[in-house]
């Protein structure tokens, strides 16, 4: 069965074949039903000053100090429609009374007032009531009603095009981490910060890569074409914002991106690398954010990735965790998803006894470590050193920012 891919403002369009191999793999995988909630609450739909009462899932919280050294709470909550920032002032000892509830419970009936500052809306909490009865957590985790099976079919198609031993490595990796990989978010507060975000983002990078790989004029022309799309969209963004009142204007998604894209393209060209190893690139894409299985925590996540990396560690501390909304994992944040990605690759190579050359293993590791592009953006190396390294950064950059456009449209 043929499927048409239509992506990136309909500028990436091509057909792929969902053959028997893809269908057979899909049939072997588990796709849990994610129940839809009855929640209609979306913070952006309410005017500042509006009183709201909603049932929400607690993501995280922190006690902070004002400039006058008075305590207040910052919190984030979620439902299936998104994530919401909130604060609570320490009125009449409210923080001391509330903290024990936050440590014990994750679902709350929230009484609050909608606040707005610099066009960003949040909640000022008046009262929190913990919900005692059992609640299906997925009904309160952000989920933009993706067709996860359709996304998985596409992802598996790309992986089945790989040569051996990359194909076996990629497919066995997917099978091993499948239950968590399918549902994991790719972020807490930026792009793909919802259930299914990781598989959608990973597939998005492969879409850009497939387009670049099969462009009839080569990768440089393909990237120039994509940059031209960004420039056109950015012009529309600037024009649209200019027509709004000053207080209603928002930062364009593609602001300050063109110089970076051209800089990365110039450095990519300067390598003068004769050929691109797309087997290395696709495998690296699968692993580039796989470490987020350890970097984030959320209701319903297993700790299989910790078991995989540390099979002999005493993990009793994980049993007492109260999982809620999407938050940074207390352990995972100390390492981060980029080093974890390289660690997961090494463990899987050892487990499968994959006969890859030492140079190709280092090329995949390099792509994982450099995919953020710049050290100040979290890259674990100073700059990419291979064509594959530059390409994984570019496709990650394109997809993460395009996602912000798509989600802005979804929220409307």
From TrEMBL:
Residues 258-399 form the HD domain. One of its GO terms (biological process) is rRNA 3'-end processing. Gene3D superfamilies: Hypothetical protein af1432. GO terms for molecular function: hydrolase activity. It holds the Pfam family HD. Keywords: Hydrolase. It comes from the Bacteria. InterPro entries: HD_domain, YhaM_exoribonuc/phosphodiest. This is 3'-5' exoribonuclease. It comes from Halolactibacillus halophilus.
């Amino acid at each position: 069965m043929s499927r048409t891919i239509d992506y990136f403002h309909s500028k990436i369009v091509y057909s792929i074949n969902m053959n028997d191999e893809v269908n057979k793999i899909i049939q072997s995988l588990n796709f849990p039903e994610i129940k839809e909630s009855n929640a209609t609450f979306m913070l952006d739909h309410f005017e500042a000053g509006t009183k709201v009462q909603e049932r929400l899932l607690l993501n995280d919280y922190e006690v902070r100090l004002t400039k006058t050294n008075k305590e207040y709470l910052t919190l984030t909550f979620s439902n299936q429609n998104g994530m919401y920032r909130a604060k609570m002032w320490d009125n009449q000892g409210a923080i001391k009374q509330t903290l024990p509830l936050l440590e014990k419970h994750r679902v709350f009936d929230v009484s609050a007032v909608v606040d707005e500052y610099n066009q960003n809306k949040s909640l000022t909490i008046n009262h929190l009531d913990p919900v005692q009865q059992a609640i299906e957590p997925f009904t309160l985790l952000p989920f933009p009603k993706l067709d996860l099976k359709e996304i998985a079919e596409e992802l598996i198609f790309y992986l089945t095009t790989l040569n051996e031993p990359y194909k076996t490595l990629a497919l066995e990796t997917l099978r091993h981490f499948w239950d968590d990989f399918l549902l994991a978010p790719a972020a807490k507060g930026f792009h793909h910060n919802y259930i299914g975000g990781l598989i959608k983002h990973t597939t998005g990078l492969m879409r850009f890569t497939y387009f670049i790989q099969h462009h009839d004029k080569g990768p440089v022309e393909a990237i120039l074409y994509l940059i031209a799309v960004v420039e056109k969209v950015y012009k529309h963004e600037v024009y649209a914002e200019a027509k709004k009142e000053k207080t209603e204007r928002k930062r364009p998604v593609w602001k300050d991106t063109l110089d970076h894209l051209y800089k990365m393209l110039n450095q990519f060209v300067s390598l003068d690398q004769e050929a691109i190893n797309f087997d290395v690139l696709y495998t690296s894409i699968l692993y580039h954010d796989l470490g987020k299985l350890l970097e984030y925590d959320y209701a319903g996540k297993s700790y299989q990735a910790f078991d995989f990396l540390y099979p002999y560690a005493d993990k009793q501390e994980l049993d007492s965790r109260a999982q809620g909304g999407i938050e940074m994992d207390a352990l995972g944040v100390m390492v981060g998803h980029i080093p974890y990605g390289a660690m997961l690759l090494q463990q899987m190579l050892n487990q499968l006894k994959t006969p890859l050359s030492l140079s190709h293993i280092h090329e995949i590791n390099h792509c994982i470590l450099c995919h953020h592009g710049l050290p100040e953006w979290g890259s674990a190396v100073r700059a990419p050193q291979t064509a594959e390294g530059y390409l994984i950064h570019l496709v990650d950059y394109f997809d993460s920012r395009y996602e912000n456009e798509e989600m802005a449209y979804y929220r409307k």
